[in-house]
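One chain shown below:
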Amino acid sequence: MHTKFRLSVYLLFVVQLFIGCSSDPLPEPDVTQPETPAGVPDAYQDKIRTQPYPKADNELYLNPAPLIVPQAMKTGERLQFSLSRTEDFSSPETVVTEPQEWCMYNLHRRLDTGTWFWRFRSTNANGNMPGEWSTTYQFEVKNDAPEFVTPAFNIFLENAPRLHPRLYCFLDDRIEEARSRVTSHQEYKELQSRASQALNTDYTTMADIYSRAEELRQHATYLYQAYHLTQKEIYAEKLRQLLEALVTAPPTDKQLFASNFTATNIAWCLVAAYDLLYDNLSASDRTAAEEQMMRVARYYYKVNCGYQENHLFDNHFWQQNMRILFQVALSLYDKPTCSSEVLPMMEYYYELWTARAPASGFNRDGIWHNGTGYFSANILTLAYMPALFSYIARQDFLQHPWYRNAGRSMVYTCPPNSKTNGFGDNSEKGTEPNRLIAAFADFLACETGDSYAGWYAGECSELVRKDYELRLYRMCTDRNYDTSFPSDAAKMVWYKDAGEVAMHGCPDDREKDLALSFRSSTFGSGSHTTASQNAFNLLYKGVDVYRSTGYYQNFSDAHNLMSYRHTRAHNTLLVNGIGQPYSTEGYGSVMRAMGGQHISYCLGDASHAYKGISNDPMWIDYFKQAGITQTPESGFGATPLTKYRRHILMLHPATVLIYDELEASEAVRWEWLLHSPAKFGIDATKNTLATNNNTKGFVAVTRLFAGHVFALSQTDKFVVPPAVTGAEYSNQWHLTARVDGSSATRFLAVIQVGDTQESVPVVRRDGDTFSVGDWTVEAVLDASKTPKLTVTHRTEPVVFSYGTDNPVLNGASYPRQSAGSSLLYDAMDGTWQVTEMTDRTPVSTRAISR
């Protein structure tokens, strides 16, 4: 039962009041509102770093922060860094580093709060001809910066294993026991079955062996796991045959570096055999394997050093190449013929992980900023690297904030027994999580005891057993963890760094759960994300109600560029038919989010998202290959948009409100978009949109209102159809609400989901007041008036208020602290509280110092 109380002036001073993103209770409202400083730069993330990090206008993601220098600012062969508490670098604790090849420096110790100063200079290879020191940069370390300190590389190196096998040294204390019970393990038959695929392959007769590198990588994994666990020579012999097939006919550079993954796939085959069979290989085989691995290591070290620390997120590198290149270095670092070359590589990748892992280095949320569809491609690395580093460096790398939040994030963005409700390439596929995601939940539950991960793994136990990538870990690990759902789970999670919000009506029960995800991100659009700022997806009972459309068949074909990645494919907005560019510069931001027992709320700002065409050379090339020009007729170009702020509320259990504020510097054509797997039943008189899901047995009804007359239309045709056709790629439905010739307008959408048409209340309007069952909504739709959105309930004292007036909470007027704030009075953790919030300044790492 909720505790209700009458607000008085006294009580106003003791309720919890949140301004911006602070959770500290204030004893008395402050009537002043700080203004946004003039000249604040765009808060997006650079794809390739152009400004040193950190600087005075950067909010630190972690303490200590890495010092990163753009590659273009390194003018010599090496870089030297200096860090101090004083601007003249005269204080006793001033650090001056040894010159190094890469463009980053990790302090490996906690920084005291306060102001710090740093600079850098280029040197020659010997470090004895330094150039001039750079401009001095300063940054502030605040008390609220999460702390994550890693050991220095020399500590890691001192503890590094000297014997083989060593790649899975973190399982050494468990492997003997695992071997003693391997045949009774529930995954033993699958272990044998996978290994049999390799046993039944004749590598000596395999035509064009290097073109089958991915298949060979899998075979090496199957054999490595099977031999390491069973010690049966049949697996060792086959792994030796694979190695010999590769070293007997070494690849040309064209073969070895044919694709981004080919070289590391081959390197894994070599290092797996080299590591596991080291003492039983002939000297010639060891030498040949070392030479081939060094070819790969040299090539990629030259490519990566200076580049990866400055690239926002190089997908293939972080998915696989980073892991395998480090495994090569770990295997060769103490070999006399390789050591001098490999040790700098090993140190570089160790420092790079500290500076930029696990999720770009600028994401603490536990969600995958590059799209849920490609999360699974990163999981083996995400599990392996911290397990290895924690064991060798004797410090828990899973204490990074991203890992501490990952279990909860999987529950809210990739729910068990449900489609994912996330965004990005491939996110639309499947009816349940990828088995690697389930295996990662199991890994986190075992290693950290995270309750969300434990529940998730319990719900997906069959999927966990199907995964092979983490099988060796599971078969060596006691997996006793709590699978009960966390009792304190919230209905809303705000991913502040990644720029997403997840709302759930009942996150632990798919058949009752209405799930909404919202994206407005400083990571912008590019790579495996899409041009979907201020877009949302809505699921019920684990299936789509409204969702981004199109099919991910090819990263860059015409369908992808025009009908999948393009903004027209998402539940957001077009301006004059133009969408957002494929660029980090086409960014958005979640400015506010809060929630309680009855209402979940967020506000996204995509005012900066419609930035013109995609200038990234990669996308320019792909458009050229597809025969598409980036013109307004194709949906690309500049727009006069000046404001696009979208408020989303979930009124639990089954109603969603969307309130859009839209402004432009001149009259434009506004197109409000909604996409569905089912055809819309349109009532043009009442502006009602209805869809049915006969399989799951529910209906969705949306009532749309606006400040101007709008025209409704729908089509089941793509601008460019998918290249591959068939039942799996059926047409989807795309609805547009169009307002012509207006410089400013507003929309209000009332979305209701129910098991039957009769269970969905009729929306009744009286001016700016809308009755929705037990809810009353007041929304000002006239764009010439001050925006206002108020929500109250017939029987509960819950109130949401956005605007300038002072709302009435439980019978008493509440003095709003800031005009234009969002205010929620709701039950939170069993207590009725007031939360008031203004815009949160977007966090990025590219801002130019003021």
User: Anything to note?
Assistant: Residues 492-761+769-796 form a domain with the Beta-galactosidase; Chain A, domain 5 fold (CATH 2.70.98.70). Residues 1-40 have pLDDT under 50 and may be disordered. The chain has 19 helices and 30 strands. The longest strand covers residues 655-676.
